[in-house]
Amino acid sequence: MGHAGEHRHLTGALVLTLGFALVEAVAGWWSGSLALIADAGHMLTDSTALALAALAAWLARRPPSDRHTYGLVRAEVLAALANGLIMLGLIGFIAYEAVQRFQQPRDIRGEAVLVVAVIGLLVNLLVAWRLARGGQDLNTRAALLHVMGDLLGSVAAITAGTVILATGWTPIDPLLSLVVAGLILFSAWRLLSEALQVLLEGVPPHIDIQAVGRNLAALKGVRSVHDLHVWTLSSGKIALSAHLDLERLDDWPRILLQARALLAREHGIGHVTLQPEAGDNPVLQHLPTASRTP
User: Fold this and answer.
1) What is the pLDDT of residues 100-121, one digit of tens each?
2) How far are the Cα atoms of 88, 93, 178, 230 from residue 174, in angstroms, in the given order?
3) Predicted confidence (pLDDT) at residue 236 exceeds the cutoff of 70
4) What is d(CA 194, CA 202) in angstroms, rounded to the nearest whole number?
5) Torsions phi, psi of 76, nearest 5?
6) What's the predicted TM-score (pTM) here?
7) Per-residue pLDDT for 135 more than 60?
8) Does residue 152 carry a pLDDT above 70?
9) SS3 of 124, please?
10) Which of 14, 167, 239, 291 has a beta carbon 3.0–4.6 Å from 271's, enabling a disulfide?
11) Contact residues for 179 (Cβ-Cβ < 8 A; gap 6+)
12) Distance (Å, rounded) from C-alpha 51 to C-alpha 56?
């Protein structure tokens, strides 16, 4: 799905999430439930996250310019990074409030918690369904991650409300809030790691750069490959640059076509920049280096 469809789904999800966040915040304050307040806070940060994601999707549709020759496709990666950092802040808030509730327990209206949490679960399921239809790029996955955290928050709130109604045991409320915070932390860390990998122009995790080098070096007429670099421009867009030392420069048109086809077919790399070289004993200064087996 293109950036236009992604933007539409993100905007719809934003309206739903922001609207119910306000409802849940009021209900959490009235009922005294940290689980509801934490879920409302999470949904509020989700609204910010979805707004950032929608803005990033819009920016990614902008055409390349003299100042940004690749366009603004990496705006989605920046939005994913910001969303991950926002989630870390939310986790810290939930943990702090939970400790306070353990030290100073409060009365909680279990029936209100249960009703609002069930409605919240339905809203989150609808939002998750809309986002799942919007694509699987890093930006949409970041927004979907927030919503999945909301789903966990709604389930925790439903459990808390049920236990409080059945037993009156209020510590279940902050306890489940901590459990949800821990689950969100794991996912947020993975998201941040992936976004940083892209921004630092690391090799995509699914790409074996040694295999790429060997495949290029195995092409007929190629003696060796050096200055090989592979990085991610944006979600689903992988770039490569390399120097190919050739036996004969006259073979370059054929080798270039074969190399592009090979990289697209075997490794899913579509943005390719290759430089031909011819000469004895090329100096291979940068790793990884691959040589064709005679």
Assistant:
1) 888 877 777 777 778 878 888 8
2) 18, 12, 6, 46
3) no
4) 10
5) -65, -35
6) 0.64
7) no
8) yes
9) helix
10) 239
11) 156
12) 8
Closest CA to 237 of 272, 262, 265: 272
Q: Tell me, what DSSP letter sits at residue 104?
A: S
Phi, psi for 228 (deg, rounded to 5): -90, 125
Q: Residue 282 phi/psi, 5° resolution?
A: -65, 145
- Distance (Å, whole) CA 171 – CA 32: 12
In sequence order, what are the beta bridge partners of 277? Answer: 245
Residue type (1 letter), 138: L
pLDDT tens, position by position, 39-63: 676 666 666 666 766 676 677 677 7
Query: Strand pairing partners for 222?
Result: 246
Collapsed DSSP state (helix, strand, coil) of residue 97: helix
DSSP string, 172-195: HHHHHHHHHHHHHHHHHHHHHHHH
Report d(CA 64, CA 52) in Å as an integer: 21
Q: Is-contact 72 58, C-beta < 8 A?
A: no
Domains of the chain by start residue, with CATH: 3-199 (1.20.1510.10), 209-291 (3.30.70.1350)
Task: Share the mean pLDDT of the chain.
Answer: 77
The DSSP call for residue 283 is -
Tell me which of 63-67, 99-103, 123-127, 206-210 is least confident: 63-67
